[in-house]
Amino acid sequence: MEATPTLQKAKRSRLIVKVVLAVVVIAGLVVVTRFIDLQQIFRNALAWISGLGPTGPLVFVLLYILACVLLLPGSLLTLGAGVVFGVIEGSVVVSVGSTLGATCAFLVGRYLARDWVGAKIAGNDKFKAIDEAVAVEGWKIVGLTRLSPVFPFNLLNYAFGLTQVKLKHYLIASWLGMMPGTILYVYIGSLAGDLASLGSGERTRSTGEWILYGIGLAATIVVTVFVTRIAKKALDNRIAS
Fold first, then answer.
1. Which of these, 147, 62, 134, 121, lies nearest to 96 by C-alpha position?
2. Nearest to residue 93, comparing CAs of 105, 102, 84?
3. d(C-alpha 220, C-alpha 226), whole Å
4. Residues 95 and 179 sit within 8 Å (Cβ to Cβ)
5. Directed axis angle between helix 167-192 and helix 87-108, to 10°?
6. pLDDT at residue 126 greater than cutoff 70
7. Contact 53, 84 (CB under 8 A)
8. What are the E-state strand segments in the chain?
């Protein structure tokens, strides 16, 4: 009985630490995106990586993981991989980096934020129903959202960490779902020829991009209908019981 107040105090302290860390990270990201030229920093990093030889791919993967965890846009890195490594090697390193980065963010969301969010939505039957539905059909939902341009990649990594989707299902479905876009944008980057031209100015979208957007739109519709159906079914089953 005497240990209960101490345990509650410890939980409260951990929660405060998590909230403070979240605030610091968000504030840092605001400063970074507002006052720092990320594109130029990424260009400089890619130029440096291009001269590292055999260790270049490893450093690139680590940079991509860091970008995912810090919610930084990785599109320039994906395009830059085509310039630095070529289509085949570039697709491999981006695929590895984005998958590992998405997994790291997923784990951060699951183990640092899930308890706090869970306390906030305690008693919310709709969220529980959706959570349980994702636990059953998680790999399908993950794969479809990875094909869709509507769902933001970085935020989605953390959001899935709050659901019951299994890690292995999340990892495999993310890897497969991101593959078409990875190959296409690495290829587009390889056509740029140099790092300086990446991310500068407007360009005409390629046929491959329009096809990918069409697939993404279809995936968006399917995942919306899919999630709605399984969530409604799970909710009806919960209410009926």
1. 62
2. 84
3. 10
4. yes
5. 140
6. no
7. no
8. none
Q: Which residues, in sequence order, are CB contacts of 125 under 8 Å at separation 6+?
A: 235, 238, 239
User: Quick one: pLDDT at residue 103?
Assistant: 95
CA separation (Å) from 17 to 13, 50, 95, 108? 6, 39, 33, 14
For the stretch 84-111, what's the b/e string if a residue is b when 16 or more beta carbons lie within 10 angstroms of its beta carbon?
Answer: bbebebbbbbbbbbbbbbbbebbbbbbe
Residue 62: which of 47, 77, 76 has the closest Cα?
77
The Cα–Cα gap between 175 and 178 comes to: 5
Reduce the secondary structure of 99-153 to three states and give it as a string: HHHHHHHHHHHHHHHHHHHHHHCCCCHHHHHHHHHHHHHHHHHHHHHHHCCCCCH
Average pLDDT over residues 98-122: 78
Q: How far is CA 9 from CA 6, 12, 13, 14, 102, in A?
A: 5, 5, 6, 9, 33
Higher per-residue pLDDT: 30 or 187: 187
Q: What is the mean pLDDT of residues 31-55?
A: 79
Give the per-residue pLDDT at 204. 60
Give mean pLDDT, residues 71-97.
Answer: 90
